[in-house]
C-alpha cells in the first residue's frame, strides 16, 4: 500500500484556504486516492499546527472542523517518537535551511515509510530522502483567504 504524508498546510488549505488552494489540495488528494491503495498519514505535529490558532482565538467551530478532519478513519496520525525527533535532528544538521517543524514532518514521513510527501512549502523540496511534491494553487490565488505558510 502506498503511504502519502500530508504536511499540516494541506489541512489548513482544506479548511481555511483560498478557493484556489482548497481546490488544488482536494484535486490532488482525489487523484492520489483514485490510484488505489493509498494510506494518508500525518503526525501529531499537524494537530498542534492546525489547532493552535483556533484555540488561541477561541474559534470552537473551526477547532471542531480540524478535530473531525484529523480523526478521520482515512487518515493515520503518527505519534512524535524519539526516532522521529532523532531523524529530524539529522535532517536539520544536513539541511541547515530546514526549520525544526519542517524537519519533524519530514522525519515522521520517513519513519512511516512514506512514498510521497505532499506540501505547499517549496522549501521542503531540499530533502532528497523522499519524494516531496509541492502543490501549486490554481490561477485564482489572489482571492482572499489563507496563503501558503504556517498557521500556528
Task: Note the main attributes of this structure.
6 helices; 152 residues; Rossmann fold; single chain; alpha/beta; disordered C terminus
Layout of SSEs?
Layout: E1 2-6, H1 8-16, H2 19-34, E2 38-43, H3 44-56, H4 60-70, E3 75-78, H5 82-94, H6 100-111, E4 116-119, E5 132-134
Parallel strand pairs: 1-2, 1-4, 2-3, 4-5
What does this entry look like structurally?
This protein has 152 residues and is of the alpha/beta class. The protein has a single domain, classed as Rossmann fold (3-Layer(aba) Sandwich), CATH 3.40.50. 49% of the residues lie in helices and 14% in strands. It is built from six helices and five strands. The protein has helices spanning 8-16, 19-34, 44-56, 60-70, 82-94, 100-111, and strands spanning 2-6, 38-43, 75-78, 116-119, 132-134. It has a five-stranded parallel β-sheet with strand order 3-2-1-4-5. Helix 1 packs across helix 2, helix 1 (8-16) runs parallel beside helix 3 and helix 3 (44-56) packs antiparallel against helix 4 (60-70). The chain is globular and about 40 Å long. Mean pLDDT is 91; it is low at 141-150.
Structure summary:
By secondary structure, this protein is of the alpha/beta class.
Amino acid at each position: 500500500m502506498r503511504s502519502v504524508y500530508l504536511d499540516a498546510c494541506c489541512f489548513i488549505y482544506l479548511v481555511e484556504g483560498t478557493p484556489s488552494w482548497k481546490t488544488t489540495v482536494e484535486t490532488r488528494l482525489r487523484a492520489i486516492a483514485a490510484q488505489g491503495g493509498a494510506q494518508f498519514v500525518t503526525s501529531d505535529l499537524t494537530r498542534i499546527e492546525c489547532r493552535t490558532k483556533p484555540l488561541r482565538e477561541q474559534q470552537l467551530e473551526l477547532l471542531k472542523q480540524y478535530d473531525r478532519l484529523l480523526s478521520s478513519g482515512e487518515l493515520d496520525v503518527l505519534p512524535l517518537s524519539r526516532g522521529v525527533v532523532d531523524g529530524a535532528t539529522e535532517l536539520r544538521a544536513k539541511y541547515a535551511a530546514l526549520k525544526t517543524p519542517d524537519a519533524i514532518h519530514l522525519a515522521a514521513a520517513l519513519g512511516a515509510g512514506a512514498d510521497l510527501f505532499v506540501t505547499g512549502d517549496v522549501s521542503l523540496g531540499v530533502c532528497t530522502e523522499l519524494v516531496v511534491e509541492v502543490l501549486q494553487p490554481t490561477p485564482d490565488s489572489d482571492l482572499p483567504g489563507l496563503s501558503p505558510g504556517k498557521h500556528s
